[in-house]
From TrEMBL:
Gene of this entry: Vigan.06G068000
SUPFAM superfamilies named in the record: HCP-like
Homology family: Belongs to the PPR family. P subfamily.
Pfam families xref list: PPR_2
Species annotation: Vigna angularis var. angularis
Keyword annotations from UniProtKB, A to Z: Repeat
UniProt xrefs under PROSITE patterns: PPR (PS51375)
InterPro entries documented for this protein: PPR_rpt, TPR-like_helical_dom_sf
GO molecular function: mRNA binding
PPR repeat residues: 24-58, 59-93
Protein name, entry field: Pentacotripeptide-repeat region of PRORP domain-containing protein
């Protein structure tokens, strides 16, 4: 459904799943990615919050999908918050994920924020993962 552009139908199935059984982390990630790709960041963020309220730990793929969507929308502030949470959870961002946010921050002249995130990431790892 998601691959065929049936966003509304996929979301209806997702809502039914929530009522009947607990979706797994991969299902939440697919829904977040789908809404990011449809440029509906409000819905992606709602699902993100709901996922965390259900005690699911987002994966690197979940974080990356959300950072990508926020960067494409130009929302560096929210993308930074998500990336910082990712790092705090001990999850290394890929080079592509970090690079997207890096480009946006440089475009906005926010080298200070970029330096902060890079230093925080260096406490976790030597360098981002290769994609």
């Amino acid at each position: 459904m998601i691959g065929q552009g049936q966003t509304d139908r996929a979301f209806r199935v997702f809502r039914r799943m929530i009522k009947l059984c607990e979706p797994d982390a991969d299902t939440y990630t697919m829904m977040i990615k789908m809404f990011c790709e449809k440029n509906d960041l409000e819905m992606a963020l709602q699902i993100w919050k709901f996922m965390k309220s259900k005690q699911f730990v987002p994966s690197m793929h979940t974080f990356s999908a959300l950072v990508k969507g926020l960067c494409e929308k130009g929302d560096a502030a929210k993308a930074c918050v998500v990336l910082e949470e990712m790092i705090e959870k001990g999850i290394r961002p890929s080079r592509i994920t970090f690079g997207r946010l890096r480009q946006l921050l440089l475009k906005e002249g926010r080298e200070d924020v970029l330096k902060f995130l890079h230093e925080k990431m260096n406490l976790l790892v030597k360098e981002p993962l290769h994609d």
